[in-house]
């Protein structure tokens, strides 16, 4: 049952989405009709970014993810969406103070002064301020008022759309609702700053052994509901990587890839928000990872299966990959041609094995994989969506800055480690 307040919030949010979307469509049509060929694309991209910023909530998060995929959306749109990573319009000092006082009670005067000045970053969920206290420089992350209501309403709209899509004959067995619910759970979890502080500490500890990777430690005694204080990392500039020597840039990308592979195959603890507002490359060769709000914990069984699937890809063993996918299927129609499915999965894996990042088209691979599942009405574990999302975000950075990396082979030691951990746990 949906209470009246929630229903009103959903109705208001739906009206706002429709109104903003309609107004943006009118403006885009005018831009398309009146702009020169040289400026049309830039102006349309900027209008789309403004629309996502105005809508906020899950729409900003969607724009952030798309902004990392220059290979999919093109340089112009990726650049326009790039400002959504840490340059969303900040909240007012009064709003920030209200959240601080509710979460901390007696608010440190240094924090009061910090929110009275400009924020150092602003996203869809929170703004970040720089504060100095007791000889330490801190980053203070403050949740936006109303962020939860906006995301909840967005997810209700998406659930309605997923329910409608699931009734179409072609998608009747696709677990749309589960996927949307899992995405919604991840987005709503970003509102729990206590959990995020714990996630940040875990991320720091898990990646401590990866050379060149830095994760700021939270400061629990200065954190509370809606407020996280953490170490402030100086010198963060997302444009730095473009000017670094190729050998430094490639070493940093390798460190980032190793960090993600450790999370994915060994820890089963995924950072799903590795856009350029949360991933920084410093001139000294270190990589800084921020923000542990959007994470996903894979079940041990899902991690074991995904690790095994990736191991099969590395070896070019499509039969193993097909077996793993089939092991996650909940129901199979008697008339389904399992042998044909196995053969097509095997062929897909063989076509993509051993490619460097420049040539390995992970989005196309994922689409082909999902198309085959739809063709044979065999749908795999919805949890597989999240490691795929993690890898898609990562691959966009790798293709741009280290295109000759063997994206699959770099995973081999982490996959082997992950398989050994699994066998040890079940042995």
From TrEMBL:
Origin species: Actinomadura citrea
Classification via PANTHER family: AARF DOMAIN CONTAINING KINASE 2, AARF DOMAIN CONTAINING KINASE 2 (PREDICTED)
Keyword NAD: no
Annotated protein name in UniProt: Ubiquinone biosynthesis protein
Keyword Ligase: no
Keywords attached to this entry: Ubiquinone
ABC1 atypical kinase-like domain mapped to chain residues: 83-322
